[in-house]
């Protein structure tokens, strides 16, 4: 085998440190990739793949390679990270002239999907979380870190479902699992569910002792009690494993990371992943976009920080009445005080993303433009602080008081940084004149030297008579005098030829060499000094990083509150009345998102009354497209808005604090998980029945429709009975169904009330009036809805014949179904001359009683557990099939 060159030996040794990352290896002005890394990068980046002939000494094989310029590498790196790759950046860590042998190179950073710091790789109003998870004996510890803002959250859960819900809420870009556990069932579930990068943590960093050591060392504290995690070992392990991973991959100061904050469940409403999806809280079901979601409607935030906090408010409404009222008081003042709200919005408009800016300062990647943005943002805070402290709402006052004074750092940045600084901080032109005396001296020397060069050019033109003579500069030859070939004969003997060009010659003179040395020395010192001065200013900002982060938190909260007020005014929302009882009363409620989407058409408002006594379950019947789902969703969204601290789309709303919102809406297969529509529905339903409480709100839409009619109606009725009669549940419930038999079966239930969507018949057609009436529907109008959907007339005509046949008994001679008989005759495409007289929807149980029905009637459902019910249902299903 051919011996490797020293450079390739260095590359191979470096690559061995990061086997799971693409290695960007700095060679001069390029980052080069070799072997499989080169093949992968060339394919993903669509750049040329070449070969290196001298990969080995004495060998004929060519080493695959590709490269990108170092000045534009950021874009290429981010493209690879977006595709799920990790990229290790290896830099030259000593000057080529100072090296003895090959130049020393080291990995300075590993960029992964969860550790992106570059602005171009981040969404302004969304967090980019790196997560970790540790499981021991059924207990899950989780940690979430947004490196770009410094946020660090931890939590423990006692079930896999709760862990998955937490992961789905935070949507991490990358998840760290313990060393050697990347192929466990939990890890595979996470990878498939979240479609994110799964990474193994460092060996032993997830055990309690090592995790504690990492945390104590990073934050400089003596005991884990400082974090409030003494009795939460799994959460502590997850946080320690995550921090150890960051230390190894980032290789720099991470002082901007805040102390771990534990996610408490008691203070917040619980919304599982199914309900977040069904209610389209942060993205739509159809295209996964923000527009059309509740978040998209509410987002009138001015700052990126406010946008990120708004998303957290939407996903985690409060369950503490006192805190909700504080938010509502603040929103009400902003709602009523137009001048205050406009002043705040105007001031916020001048604030940049302070959270991410100061994170880059601590990280060491902030440039002069970042410092300038920090300075201009901090400069408006005294005015914002004054307006907030003058407000009447206690929360606004408190947020104003948490904003510190930053006059000194603002003055330092204004004096130090030029008005329009360049992107790079290593090429000069960053520091203002007058900031440093020695720098001013060097600048004067540089300017005088360049002035001398300009004068020299004019003098030499006059002395030689060569009008085209010019003085130039390049990095290879320094300063020179260039003369075209046509004028070479006029060149004085004192000129020394330096370079021959196609169209001329370049010369130097003793005087030019002497001045060049002075100018270049001044410029070199000037650039180095400017960078040192810039770092001093950056360090001064880093010293007050915690105060800036606290101010940023207040700014974000104010931004969310003014966003709530702005939307409430624009959409005519009203302040809800909160109470601690079980009553939910909504007068003229509207669906916030649907109402906003309607163009020139008024939204039909509806009332709602629910409690845990005589109005516990609202059983809603009516045709498809008539508005049942919209109505139920709007009730849930109004409750969520109220507990976020926002006004609601209703003329009046009285809301007893809800601890959980559950929804089972819509039908979808889980093909990846191997689950049918019906199984998905049953899994979601089981989750609701196991976890709902009397303080919960449940939204159920057409339970049981994914299976046979008898199975479906049996499940639907059993669920209604369980919700109504189980003392552990007793939750307020909106239940939409097409099983009209339920309205008969539940007439004796004191807590069940019947409602329907108002439909107006016009011959063979219907008009949806979208109004919820306090009565049960007797028809589903399926054929009329099919007509509206555009089904062919011959299909509709045949459907009418079959419907009449079913309504008349459904069987002919020798018990053969009439449907089958009719199907053997030609289908008439003509519509009936007279529309059939409307009849009540056929009851499934009008025919001779089936043995399964008899067994159902004899059941004592109140003695059945949910598991017993499911087993019994399976047995009855088998009997029905055998019959």
What does this protein structure show overall?
One of its GO terms (biological process) is mismatch repair. This protein is of the alpha/beta class and 883 residues long. It is built from 30 helices and 29 strands. The strands form six sheets. It has a seven-stranded mixed beta sheet, sandwiched between helices. Strand 26, helix 24 and strand 27 form a beta-alpha-beta unit. Helix 17 runs antiparallel to helix 19. It is elongated. About 4% of the residues have low confidence.
- Total beta strands: 29
Fraction in beta strands: 15-25%
What would you call the structural class?
alpha/beta
**How does the overall form come out from the CA principal axes?**
elongated
Under CATH, the topology of the largest domain can be stated as: Rossmann fold
Count of all domains: 6
Number of helices: 30
Corresponding CATH superfamily of the largest domain: P-loop containing nucleotide triphosphate hydrolases
Label the CATH architecture of the largest domain: 3-Layer(aba) Sandwich
Q: Strand order, main sheet: write it out.
A: 15-25-26-27-23-28-29
Family: Belongs to the DNA mismatch repair MutS family.
Keywords: ATP-binding, DNA damage, DNA repair, DNA-binding, Nucleotide-binding
Binding site for ATP: 622-629
Function: This protein is involved in the repair of mismatches in DNA. It is possible that it carries out the mismatch recognition step. This protein has a weak ATPase activity.
Question: Would you summarize the structure shown here?
Answer:
The protein is an alpha/beta fold and 883 residues long.
């Amino acid at each position: 085998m051919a011996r490797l060159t020293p450079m390739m030996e260095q590359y191979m040794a470096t690559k061995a440190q990061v086997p799971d990352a693409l290695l960007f290896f700095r060679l001069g002005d390029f980052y080069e990739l070799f072997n499989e890394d080169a093949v992968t990068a060339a394919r993903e980046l669509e750049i040329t793949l070449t070969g290196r002939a001298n990969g080995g000494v004495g060998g004929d094989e060519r080493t695959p390679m590709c490269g990108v310029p170092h000045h534009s590498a950021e874009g290429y790196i981010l493209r690879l990270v977006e595709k799920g790759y990790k990229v290790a950046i290896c830099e030259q860590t000593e000057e080529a002239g100072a090296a003895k042998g090959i130049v020393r190179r080291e990995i300075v950073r590993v960029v992964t999907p969860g550790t992106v710091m570059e602005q171009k790789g981040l969404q302004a109003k969304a967090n980019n979380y790196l997560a970790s998870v540790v499981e021991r004996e059924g207990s899950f510890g989780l940690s979430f870190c947004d490196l770009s803002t410094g946020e660090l959250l931890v939590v423990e859960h006692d079930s896999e479902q709760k862990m998955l819900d937490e992961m789905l809420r935070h949507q991490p870009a990358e998840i760290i699992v313990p060393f050697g556990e990347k192929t466990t069932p939990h890890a595979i579930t996470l990878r498939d569910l979240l479609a994110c990068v799964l990474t193994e943590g460092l060996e032993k960093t997830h055990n309690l002792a090592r995790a504690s050591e990492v945390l104590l060392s990073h934050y400089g504290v003596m005991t884990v009690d400082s974090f409030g995690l003494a009795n939460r070992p799994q959460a502590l392990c997850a946080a320690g494993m995550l921090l150890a991973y960051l230390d190894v991959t980032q290789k720099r100061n991470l002082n901007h990371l805040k102390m771990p904050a534990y996610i408490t469940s008691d203070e917040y409403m619980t919304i599982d992943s199914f309900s977040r999806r069904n209610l389209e809280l942060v993205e739509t079901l159809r295209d996964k976009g923000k527009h059309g979601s509740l978040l998209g409607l509410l987002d009138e935030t001015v700052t990126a920080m406010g946008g990120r906090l708004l998303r957290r408010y939407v996903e985690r409404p409060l369950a503490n009445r006192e805190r909700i009222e504080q938010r509502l008081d603040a929103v009400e003042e902003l709602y009523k005080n137009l001048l205050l709200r406009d002043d705040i919005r105007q001031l916020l408009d001048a604030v940049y993303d302070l959270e991410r800016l100061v994170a880059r300062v601590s990280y060491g990647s902030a440039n002069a433009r970042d410092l300038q943005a920090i300075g201009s943002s901090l400069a408006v805070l005294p005015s914002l602080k004054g307006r907030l402290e003058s407000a009447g709402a206690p929360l606004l006052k408190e947020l104003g008081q948490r904003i510190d004074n930053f006059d000194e750092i603002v003055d330092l940045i204004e004096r130090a940084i030029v008005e329009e600084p360049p992107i790079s901080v290593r090429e000069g032109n960053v520091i203002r004149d007058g900031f440093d005396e020695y720098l001013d001296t060097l600048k004067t020397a540089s300017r005088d030297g360049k002035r001398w060069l300009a004068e020299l050019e004019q003098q030499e033109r006059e002395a030689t008579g060569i009008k085209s003579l010019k003085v130039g500069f390049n990095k290879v030859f320094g300063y020179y005098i260039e003369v075209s070939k046509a004028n070479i004969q006029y060149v004085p003997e004192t000129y020394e030829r330096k370079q021959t060009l196609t169209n001329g010659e370049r010369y130097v003179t003793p005087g030019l060499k002497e001045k060049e040395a002075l100018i270049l020395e001044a410029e070199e010192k000037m650039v180095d000094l400017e960078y040192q001065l810039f770092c001093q200013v950056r360090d001064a900002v880093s010293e007050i990083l915690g105060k800036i982060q606290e101010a940023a938190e207040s700014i974000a909260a104010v931004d969310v509150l003014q966003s709530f007020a702005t939307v409430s005014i624009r959409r005519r929302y009203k302040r809800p009345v909160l109470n601690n009882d079980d009553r939910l009363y909504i007068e003229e409620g509207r669906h916030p998102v649907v109402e906003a989407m309607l163009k020139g058409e008024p939204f039909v408002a509806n009332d709602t009354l629910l409690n845990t006594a005589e109005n516990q379950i609202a059983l809603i019947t009516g045709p498809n497209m008539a508005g049942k789902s919209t109505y139920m969703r709007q009730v849930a969204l109004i409750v969520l808005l109220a507990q976020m601290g926002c006004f609601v789309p209703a003329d009046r709303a009285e809301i007893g604090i809800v601890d959980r919102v559950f929804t089972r809406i819509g039908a979808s297969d889980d093909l990846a998980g191997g689950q049918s529509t019906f199984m998905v529905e049953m899994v979601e339903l089981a989750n609701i029945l196991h976890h709902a409480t009397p303080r919960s709100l449940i939204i159920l839409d057409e339970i049981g429709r994914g299976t046979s009619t008898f199975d479906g109606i049996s499940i639907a009725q059993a669920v209604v009975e369980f919700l109504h009669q189980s003392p552990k549940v007793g939750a307020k419930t909106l239940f939409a169904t097409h099983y009209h038999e339920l309205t008969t079966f539940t007439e004796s239930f004191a807590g069940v009330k019947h409602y329907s969507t108002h439909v107006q018949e016009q011959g063979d057609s219907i008009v949806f009036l979208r109004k919820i009436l306090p009565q049960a529907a007797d028809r589903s109008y399926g054929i009329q809805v099919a007509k509206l959907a555009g089904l062919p007339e011959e299909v509709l005509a045949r459907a009418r014949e079959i419907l009449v046949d079913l309504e008349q008994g459904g069987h002919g001679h020798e018990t053969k179904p009439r449907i089958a008989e009719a199907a053997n005759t030609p289908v008439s495409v003509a519509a009936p001359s007279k529309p059939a007289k409307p009849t009540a929807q056929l009851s499934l149980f009008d025919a001779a009683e089936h043995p399964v029905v008899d067994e159902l009637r004899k059941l004592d459902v109140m003695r059945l557990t949910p598991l017993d019910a499911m087993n019994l249902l399976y047995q009855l299903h088998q009997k029905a099939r055998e019959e």
